Amino acid sequence: MMTTSSTSIVVFSADTPQPVREWDKFVDSHRDATNFHRWGWKQVVEAAFGWPTFYLMAEERGVVRGILPLVWQKSRLFGSFLTSMPFLNAGGVVADTREVEHELIGMAINIARQVNASHLELRHRSDHHLDLPTKTSKLAVVKAVNTDVEQMFQKLDKKVRADIRKSQKSGFTAEFGGEELLDDFYSVFAINMRDLGTPVYSQKFFREIFRAFPVGTHVCRVRLGEECVSASFLTGYKDSIEVAWSSSIRKYLPLKPNMFLYWNLISFAGMQKYKTFDFGRSTVDSGTHKFKMQWGSEEVPLYWSYWLRQGNVLPEVNPHNPKYRFAISTWQKLPVSITRWLGPPIVRCLP
């Protein structure tokens, strides 16, 4: 699969060892590339979900000038579409010039037409000023961190400091580790997803992340006695670490396990010498958005742009869509054991 422009730019789907090495070299060196542009995510998505991928690379006279990873999802439930990148908070086009960007997106649209996709979704952390419909209802929340934990604590709002102290008196303990803590994380995560009315990822998804990225992937668990009551899954890259997934058991919320968890996460990020702590994606003005902003954080607008097949409208596959209200309320009533069985085949079809 290859196309050329009127210039010397060549766009192709990378799938051999040499382009793989050049891909990650480009990602490591480009300021706009994110964790989710790394080649390893292709392996994660293919192994955990079984979806085909198209990792588009643009070269000019043998030099990599841009990339665009794509995942093709197709199901009876939600139709056929391409996303860069599904399940994750970024992954859109990265290019040295507007011309290269144009060639990559053009190739992606051609693929969308070839596979009869209803739409192509590009997830960006900055405004690329594309001539495409764009949603801005999501944002990331980030906080600068450093190795001086006490200094960071003193800069927090007075109420936040009081809530942290209250949580520290509740008897919680925090532990950071790797795949050996995954069972505890997943137990809490599955309960929380059921309570939210959302299908849960398979545990295989998280194991594949550890396999692809053994360095920079962490689990934090918070226990009360011997019970895990809160946990987070973190992925670090370059100078930033992100809380990609995080959950707490609701009955313990009066003891403020979230405050205990996140203060430990922020402290860990600083002590590991990251510069930025990324709270992950939120819907604008949601409860989670407000929770993340109380830590002295900053907002990073997210721009999700769409190519739509003629006659189609912007997709609204999200829990705020009224058409899913009954399904959500029904899901919340199911036993967790059932949702852990039914959830993965459903959620793999969601972007």
User: What would you call the structural class?
Assistant: alpha+beta
Our count of helices gives: 11
Can you give the helix content as a percent range?
25-40%
Number of domains: 2
What is the N-to-C order of secondary-structure elements (H for helix, E for strand)? EEHHEEEEHEEEHHEHHEEEHEHEEHH
The biggest sheet, with number of strands, parallel, antiparallel or mixed sense and barrel status, is: 9 strands, mixed
Residue runs with pLDDT of under 50 for 5 or more positions = none
Classified by CATH, the class of the largest domain is Alpha Beta
What is the name of the CATH topology of the largest domain? Aminopeptidase
Q: What global shape is seen?
A: globular
Rg (CA only): 21 Å
Strand content: 25-35%
Number of strands: 16
What integer is the average pLDDT?
92
Oligomer: single chain
Q: In the CATH hierarchy, what is the architecture of the largest domain at level 2?
A: 3-Layer(aba) Sandwich
What is the end-to-end distance?
24 Å
CATH superfamily of the largest domain: Gcn5-related N-acetyltransferase (GNAT)
